[in-house]
Amino acid sequence: MANARTNYLTTKGRAVYPWLTQPDTKFHTEGVFKCGLRVSTDEAKEIMDAALLLAKEALGAKASQARMPWEQDPETGEVIFKTKSKYKPKFVDSKGNTIPEAGLPRMYGGSILKLKGSMTPYDTGSNAGVTMNLTAVQVIEPVENLEDTEGFAAVEDGFVVSNPESFEPTNNASSSDAEFNADF
């Protein structure tokens, strides 16, 4: 099983909780680079079949209970591949040119990407499956700004801020704990 490995290259998909330009250190002090990628079931089939075959060949009887590196969205039926790496992936633009560190855009969820790497099986005794190791990312359409408010039409009789430039939230709550009343 030590040599079992299958390379993968996804089709274009939308990033889900990407941690590509800096590592996620919430559960790992050394950090993990990771990215989910949402693609249609038809586009995911080839990679899913390759992962299942790898599990069957490397894990034998445990393959039927093995964890796979994807989940299916119950609402849309789309597949979300889960990729990760201890090392920062390489980045290329939509034409295949290497993106230097200084030119790397910040990518938020919804960015359109392609992911590349290898799938490897694992067996820790009580836990077996296949993982998708991330080595490279093709940035097709990065979503860099989450504060984009274009496209909202005016809504009649809605909230209107009186002076947006000098807006300060008001605090009408009492400082006394005895008077605190939360109506949920």
Could you walk me through the main structural features you see in this protein, from its secondary elements to its overall organization?
With 184 residues, this protein is mainly β. It has one domain: OB fold (Dihydrolipoamide Acetyltransferase, E2P) (Beta Barrel), CATH 2.40.50.140. Helices cover 10% and strands 34% of the residues. It contains one helix and eight strands. A five-stranded mixed β-barrel has the order 2-3-5-8-7. The longest helix is centred in the first third of the chain and has 19 residues. About 3% of the residues have low confidence.
H-E string: EEEHEEEEE
Radius of gyration: 22 Å
**Low-pLDDT regions:** 172-177
Shape: globular
* The number of domains: 1
Write out the CATH superfamily name: Nucleic acid-binding proteins
Helix content percent band: 10-25%
Could you give a short account of the major beta sheet? 5 strands, mixed, barrel
Which structural class matches the secondary elements?
A: mainly beta
Total number of strands: 8
Name of the top-level CATH class: Mainly Beta
Fold-level CATH name: OB fold (Dihydrolipoamide Acetyltransferase, E2P)
Average per-residue pLDDT, rounded, comes to: 85
Strand order of the largest sheet: 2-3-5-8-7
At CATH level 2, the architecture is: Beta Barrel
What is this structure, in a nutshell?
The chain has 184 residues and is mostly beta strands. It has one helix at 41-59; strands at 6-9, 13-24, 32-39, 70-72, 79-85, 90-92, 112-123, 128-141. A five-stranded mixed barrel has the order 2-3-5-8-7.
